[in-house]
UniProtKB/TrEMBL annotation:
Protein name (record): Ring-cleaving dioxygenase
Keyword terms, alphabetized: Dioxygenase, Oxidoreductase
Signal peptide coordinates: none
Record-linked Gene3D superfamilies: 2,3-Dihydroxybiphenyl 1,2-Dioxygenase, domain 1
PROSITE patterns in alphabetical order: VOC (PS51819)
Cross-referenced InterPro entries: Extradiol_RC_dioxygenase, Glyas_Bleomycin-R_OHBP_Dase, Glyas_Fos-R_dOase_dom, VOC_core
One example GO MF annotation: dioxygenase activity
Keyword presence, Disulfide bond: no
Residues in VOC domain copies: 7-132, 153-269
């Protein structure tokens, strides 16, 4: 049995216009572009990684921006909302900032004693800011957002499911514990400092989610490389069908769809984003894994400009 996961490693979603995506996550949300690469399964598409200064696990929101992507439908069988952690007292600042950016923030609301500000990104992806006193100081990038209010990383994700119990049991086996319940929402928490919350929202009548721009592709959890094969066995023992271990250059990954249809990834914390770039220059150039380097000229010619 592998050691418990401390929480989320990264979340990957689908977008359309890469320039607009880049501008929103760096200029509006104040994250750092720590890796500019390509989707290793479709090299005509960027893979953009936004995070804290060094791309720490628990801070990395990544995107596949397909320029011709159709809008998806957020629904059952998906991670339906991504939540970021900000310091207590930051919600008024963010509400004003998001209104100015056209990000359509809702009224702040209380959930399990926390102040939550829902909004959407340019493709309609549901996002939230959760303000808490225990938000860590973080290794923050220089950005238009003052450090006092800056996003620290993930708070967690919400999974929308027609039946919650099988996924809840899986989360418990992964090291999460159920800590609260509010109507049809159950909260599970791990023991990490970032990305330690998974809310499971059960609605048997919810429409099925449809992949596309504005939807989450997968949620990745932190594991260690020496236990990754044990995690793969863990998934098989629970009747799931994990992939082989896949080398993604910056981490190694195992993927499996959990019982409700959400794609889970189990990603290693090392070697990290500085394995092929200096810390100070992360994200400044197109980086390719060595097995794609001989196709660089072709790949670069097929990618759009990142200007909004």
């Amino acid at each position: 049995m592998p050691a418990d996961t401390p929480g989320i490693h990264h979340v990957t979603a689908i977008a359309s216009d890469p320039g607009r995506n880049h501008a929103f996550y760096t200029e509006t949300l104040g994250l750092r572009l720590v890796k500019k690469s390509v989707n290793q399964d479709d090299v005509s598409v960027y893979h953009l990684f936004y995070a804290d200064y060094e791309g720490s696990p628990g801070t990395s929101m990544t995107f596949f921006p397909y320029t011709d992507a159709r809008a998806g439908q957020v629904g059952s069988g998906q991670a339906s909302t991504v939540s970021f952690l900000v310091p207590e007292g930051s919600i008024d600042y963010w509400r004003s900032r998001l209104e100015d950016a056209g990000a359509d923030p809702d009224e702040p609301r209380d959930r399990f004693g926390d102040t939550v500000l829902p909004f959407t990104d340019p493709n309609g992806l549901p996002l939230e800011l959760v303000a808490r006193t225990d938000a860590p100081a973080g290794n923050l990038p220089e950005s238009p957002v003052p450090h006092a209010h800056a996003i620290r990383g993930f708070f967690g994700v919400t999974l929308s499911l027609t039946s919650a119990d099988p996924t809840g049991d899986l989360l418990k086996a992964m090291g999460y514990r159920q800590t609260d319940r509010e109507g049809t929402r159950k909260r599970y928490e791990a023991d990490g400092d970032l990305g330690y919350v998974v809310d499971v929202l059960e609605d048997p009548q919810a429409p099925q989610g449809i992949p596309g721009a504005g939807t989450v592709h997968h949620v990745a959890f932190q594991v260690t490389e020496d236990e990754q094969e044990a995690w793969r066995q863990f998934l098989m023992d629970r009747g799931l069908r994990p992939t082989e271990i896949i080398d993604r250059k910056w981490f190694k990954s195992v993927y499996a769809r959990e019982y409700g249809g959400v794609l889970f990834e189990f990603a290693t914390k090392s070697p990290g984003y500085t394995v092929d770039e200096d810390l100070e220059s992360l994200g400044e150039r197109l980086v390719l894994p060595e097995w794609l380097e001989d196709r660089r000229e072709e790949i670069e010619a097929g990618l759009p400009d990142l200007s909004p």
